[in-house]
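Sat 14:20. Reprocessing the chain from the morning session after the first attempt stalled halfway. Input below, unchanged.
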Amino acid sequence: MPARIYYDQDADLGLLHGKKIAVIGYGSQGHAHALNLKDSGQDVVVGLYKGSKSWAKAEKDGVKVATVAEAAQMADVVMILLPDQSQRQVYEESIKGGLGKGKTLMFAHGFNIHFNQVVPPPDVDVSMIAPKAPGHVMRDLFTQGPGVPALLAVQQDVSGKARDTALAYARGVGCTRAGVIETTFKEETETDLFGEQTTLCGGISHLIKTAFETLVEAGYQPEVAYFECMHEMKLIVDLFYQGGLAYMRYSVSDTAEYGDYTRGPRVINEATRAEMRKILGEIQSGQFAREWVLENQANRAQFLAMRKRDAAHPIEEVGKRLRAMMSWIKPPRM
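Finished this time. Tokens:
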């Protein structure tokens, strides 16, 4: 059965008329949601902690700012756009007390709801609009016209209008221009984590590193190994993005295509598939969520050590030198 997809004509922006929307957080997603809603004519307030570096930035952007507790108290719709590991504490300390009957609590990722880190009161609607793009892309495409696609889910429908309100929100941030696919908190959370761990972040980064190491250990120049295993990845991913696997294979040489069919399955083999199933099982059972929650409770010691170790990998040093030669690449803001 094909997924249900909603567009502008399915969303009534008028449902938000007379309602105040609190966007909690003003990072990558927060600034995009707040500014897009503001440009759509909505009454928006950004909720931040006192002393936040984003406070002055949001005000400069023309958005009203209040503390998280004040924003949650005054708003009819509260969208939480904080890092997963921060949401539970902020919710308990500053948001929970401002919720009440008739209000809507929203998320852009289902982690904290699905794994019971945030347990909303029974008298509020709980829904999700999860844009499928980083915040800066979401903002740029909104201003240019197209918008970015999103996922929609309803966890708790007290009013009977939770889906309609979520769709109105999606239209306000520009997502119904591109299409909004209906899902569930469970499906969004589990597929999102699985994609991050097996392909988008975990799989691809370790595939690139291992290929780089294999060439260098065999005596090839690190710079050449970097170009072949890291730099050209963007060219291939852009082809995937534009036209799928078939378009990539159409665009590369026949030699590359033959190597794809015959050698790819030796790298990504049945042992890899078995490990992917194991990773999915850990996500579905809650094992990964428990591990990540405990890691944060332990001040992220292991996480920070892994971050430091990988930042010192030779591929990072080689890449930094080579990217400095490429004037067309904008230096990352970190």
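Residues 35 and 182 are 24 Å apart (CA to CA).
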